[in-house]
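Structure tokens please, single chain.
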Amino acid sequence: MARRVLIVGGNRFLGLELTARLLAAGGNELTLLNRGTLVDPFGDRVQRLHVDRGTDAFDQALAGTSWDVVVDFALYTAEQARRAARVLSGRVGHFVAISTGQVYLVRDVVPVPAREADLDGPLMPRPTDAYDLDQWTYGLEKREVERVVAQAFAHTTLRLPMVHGGRDFYRRFDSIAYRLLDGGPLFITRPEAMVRHVYGPAVVRQLQALVTNGNARGAYNLAQSEATTVEDLIGRVAHALGVTPRVVTTTEPELRARGLDPLLACPFNQRWMSALDATRARDQLGFTHEPMSEWVPAALQASMARWNDTPPPSMAHRPLELA
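Here you go.
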């Protein structure tokens, strides 16, 4: 019997890849729900619902429906989670929610790498800096999302750190590659910060397994096994490009004093970058992840294959960096 699967959001990156895998595997009736018009190669092999999940149109589109599996990439706020619970509770066999490692970063003392048991503990005070406040709010909202989902559904929640792949709409690898290729300096502020990111295809494989036969319940971190550093990751990208990196280690205040935005100069220049331990997912879900020697060049090649005449938006900042 075909499994009825609803995929909410995620039509630009992981959700698009998951849809392709599920279609190729067969045995599923897929419905994609997103706010905008989805451009994809799937044609009439999937059904589509174009609604804003924050409005009553979401309730109306899903009223009376039932699903074997829901995969939700777009649960960002507690209100969105409460709406989903109100509309779908009791109508979903398995709810798979995509969360973030940022749920750990709002801790007063941040564990590195973070394990699932590290969620509990005192929270940091409300930040005064605008950027930190935005990130702190996001982490708290995601915590509440997880709580609502756990109460309303038989669920699996996947906590992700920074995700890389050819369809990364933030174009983080592109941002690094463009700077390495022009021969100018790359400014980093946290060279020794731990990196335990995740490769998009590894996440999609795990999602496919959960849709197909997943019976695990609870929250799981997904991340690469190897623990490395920001400086090493940049070096690996440079190696894959065949260039020698010009890395300049500096501080955020020094960059800002020169009119430079640290995050535009390098997407890894932030304290809001989680490092996760995925031991529980490997032991209980059978999660697997490619070694960095494989996924870094693969992600870079996939990113470069989509290059066109439009550089990453952060490159508008590059003349000031070079100056």
